[in-house]
Amino acid sequence: MLKNPSYAGMYVFGRYQYRQEISLTGEVRKRMQAVAMPAWRVRLQQHHEGYIPWEEFLENAERLQKNRTNGEETVLSGPAREGLALLQGLLLCGHCGRALTVRYTGNGGIHPTLEHRWNDALLHLEDLKKQAADFRRLEARVSTPEQRAKVLALARDFPRLWHAPTTQAKDRKRMLRLLIKDVTVEKSSQLKQLLVHT
After folding, report:
1. I want to staple 155 with a disulfide (CB 3.0 to 4.6 A). Which of 14, 43, 109, 134 is the partner?
2. What is the SS3 assignment for 118?
3. How is residue 52 annotated by DSSP?
4. Across residues 164-169, what is the average pLDDT?
5. Which of 41-50, 105-114, 140-149, 159-168 comes out lowest in average pLDDT?
6. Pairing, β 182-185 against β 91-93
7. Are 10 and 50 in contact (CB under 8 A)?
């Protein structure tokens, strides 16, 4: 449903085509392959009344593409996943640009001291940026002065929200993604430093 343009009122033909391939054993195989939208043979917008507008369909398609974690061109995975690794899906190789994965060992983490300092720095950075971003974003959504006061109080007390027992790792990852686009890791023989791109 999410990928079918008919839900946005568009009739299409040619979204998929069959390809024949010869395997290493000489067997001919037929497989279906998706075709890029500009190459669809027939595209009739406003063919029928859609459930959603065409613009919303395109936004959904873009969101789905960003959330993919298994594509060849996937650089970063979009949504926050389960688990304790806060930087999961945000690490990039500074040399080739591909995504890096964080793997924790049984001894409490890769580098517990570095991770602790990193988390402290992130908390401080988040506190400052979250206050400004929340204020700008929520100012238009708050309908009453009481609600606005509660939202601003929460933004000012961000460390309490971060450390609250009810805040799950997935929620912390979502908060990080509001502040950090990616973390680029470069291997260097010189002094070790961390650059955060927000």
Report:
1. 134
2. helix
3. S
4. 86
5. 105-114
6. parallel
7. yes
One-letter amino acid for residue 63 of the chain:
R
Q: Helices (DSSP H) in 52-144: which residue ranges?
A: 54-67, 112-139
Residues 113-144: tens digit of each pLDDT = 556 666 666 777 777 777 777 666 665 555 68
Q: Are 45 and 9 in contact (CB under 8 A)?
A: yes
Token duo for residue 143: 């309908």
Token representation of residue 86: 């806060």
Q: Report the amino acid identity of residue 57.
A: F
CA-closest candidate to residue 85, choices 65, 61, 99, 101: 101
Beta strands in the chain (DSSP E): 11-13, 16-22, 28-34, 42-44, 91-93, 182-185, 195-197
